[in-house]
Amino acid sequence: MTQRHISKIPRRRADSHKRDYGHVLVVAGSMGMTGAAYLSSQAAITSGCGLVTLAIPQSLNVIAEVKLTEVMTLPLPETKDTSLSAKAQKALLGFSLSMNAVALGPGLSRNKETQKLIRVLVQKINKPLVLDADGINAFQGYQQALKGRRFPTVLTPHPGEMSRLIKKDAAYIKKNRINVAKRVSKDYNCVTVLKGHRTVVSSPDGEIYVNETGNSGMSTAGVGDVLTGMLVSFIAQGIDVYSASVVAVYLHGLAGDLAAKELGQFGMIASDLLARIPHVLKDVI
Prior knowledge:
46% helix, 9-stranded mixed β-sheet, 13 helices, single chain, alpha/beta
C-alpha cells in the first residue's frame, strides 16, 4: 500500500522550474523556539518542494536568516513575549493566497494573542493546511471553530496534544490509537496523523495506515517538526493530503532508521533526520 502512495511523488522533468514543485508557507517560531521553525522549514525544502517561506516574529528574523540558506523569511509583528501578534493576520492571509500549502504551529507558543491568531488563520486560510503543535493546542476549548474548515486539513498531534483536543487522558489515547484517529478524522473532516510508536494515519472516510518505520531514537526534540515540514512539502507538490501524510510518515521513519543504523539510537537528534531525507527519497523514487 505504501508504494501506491509513494508513486504519487512527482518526477522531475528536464525542463521544470522551481515553481512547478510548489511554494510552502511555514508559520512557526517564538522566543526560545526558533529550532522548531528551522527544522520544519528545512525539512520542507529538503523534501522536494520548490520554494519555502518562513513566517516568524520580526525580532527573530535574523536568527532564521542565519540558520536557513535556501528558505525565504517573512518577518511579522510580534507580542511582548516575542510570538506572532494579531497584527500579523493581514499579512499572513494575503501571503497565503499564492501558496500551495501552509504549515501552522511549530513553536508558535501558548501566548493568548497568538493562540487567537491561530484560530482566525485556520478559519480563513483557503489552502491545504497542516496543523501541528501549538496550532492544535489553540483549539483546546474551541473545538467547534476547528470543525468549520472547508479546505484539506491535516492534524499531527502527539498523544498529549490529542488529549487536550478531545478531553481524554493520554493513557486512553495510547490504548485506543486507531479508534481515536478515526473519530477525530470523522469529526473534523481531516486527515489525522496520531504520532508515536506505530504512527496512525486516518482519513475522513475511515482509511487507516499504521506505520512500521521508525525507532526509539526518534523520541527527541524537533523530530515532529521535521515530519510537519516533510508533510506540507509533499502536499505543495500536488499529492492529496492522505497520501502525502502516509508518504511523509513512512519516509520520516525511514530517515530515522537510517540515522539509527549509522549513529545509534542514543545520540540521534532531529537534524540527523534532515540530513537523511534526500537519501531515503533517492531510495524510493
